[in-house]
Amino acid sequence: MEHLVAATCILASGAQLNVSTSLVDDEGVDLVFHRRGGSATLAAQVKSRRTTTTALERGRFSAQVRHQTFRARSGLYLLFVVANAEEAAFGPVWLVPSLDFAAKAKEAGRRRHLRFNASTLLDAHDQWRPYRCGRAELPGKILDLLARAETD
Fold first, then answer.
1. Nearest-angstrom CA–CA distance, 147 and 139
2. Which residues pair with 17 in a beta bridge?
3. Closest listed residue to residue 16, CA positions, set 1, 41, 38, 31
């Protein structure tokens, strides 16, 4: 899924975005985005779920992030992705700053995990709704975040 997200963002941004992947995932970073010619980076931990899971069939996206590999910090985002294997596509997605995720996520599994639980329904207004976007919107959101980081 990480490679599909990366390739889609590169293509849909007109190759303005470049994406690197990690060989070792010790720090919970799957993708690192940067604007071609820029210096700012946006790191992302990707959590995906297939549309055929029971929860997604019921309109819920649920994922757990282990405390062991998660350290909230500026520049790290969590990217929760609905994966549609039948169409070789993805979306919707939630692009959540790690600091916001740490503040809003619920503890789970004897406090070994933080739980993300969002509605996939279009008219949903849960706490994660402001972070939700479609596949086509994702590259633009990442480019905007990188532009803001360049000026900070």
1. 12
2. 35
3. 38
Closest CA to 87 of 119, 133, 53, 50: 50
Q: Distance between CA 128 and CA 80 in Å, rounded?
A: 11
DSSP 135: T
Q: Is the pTM of this model over 0.90?
A: yes
Distance of CA 84 to the CA centre of its chain: 16
Q: Say what the pLDDT of residue 53 is.
A: 86
14-37: pLDDT as tens digits = 999 999 998 877 678 999 999 999
- All structural domains of the chain: 2-151 (3.40.1350.10)
Alpha helix segments (H runs only) across 36-128? 54-57, 98-104
Summarised one tens digit per residue, pLDDT across range 94-114 is 999 999 999 999 887 677 889
